[in-house]
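Appendix B, record 7
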Amino acid sequence: MIIFVRHGQAENNTKRILAGRTEGVPLTKTGVEQAERISKYIKHLDISAIYSSPIERAANTAKIIADYNSLNYELDDRLIEIEMGKFTRMNYDDMFAKYGNVFLKFYENDPIIAECEVETFPEVQKRVIDMVEYIVKKHKNQNVVLVTHMDPIKSILSTIMDLKPKTLFELIIANASLTIIKEHDEKFSISAINAMSAERYNEDLFRKTIH
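Structure tokens (predicted):
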């Protein structure tokens, strides 16, 4: 199994800011607690290796998971957050007022995305599927955790399920949740989306504010 984990809640999530690859955006106290809880959930999955985006909020989540599961973790740029270009550090409301629904335009591969120096969705898909294929070859028949961000996770779901832009926009990947895929005879299938401990489903996890 390849187990994607979105990082725990970070300050940019609560402040409704597109952090992109900006450093200095740590996990919140809630985010640390989420990472600790998902570490316990993962403990039962017989993990062999952990890879992470180098961005602080993801790497910190990976460290918590690794420490709890007595493993090391390795940073890999193929799991990094998307480059937000001119949108970096912008407030959601200000960005929407000036550019419209940028999130939907991102999934539609609208020309404004590249014009604003944002990494395009096809570019994200390419590097994430490259990472997945690497894991399949290196860790055959093993369970591996990949700690990353919402859009890299959406990209692999889109690749496997051929999701339309509107569906991708509506889909929320909760902080510190698992998205699990399996490979068999070079074909991929989805085993879980937003898997986490049962008590977390009572939380308000899927508001647009965390997109």
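Remarks on this record: The chain has nine helices and six strands. The mean pLDDT is 92.
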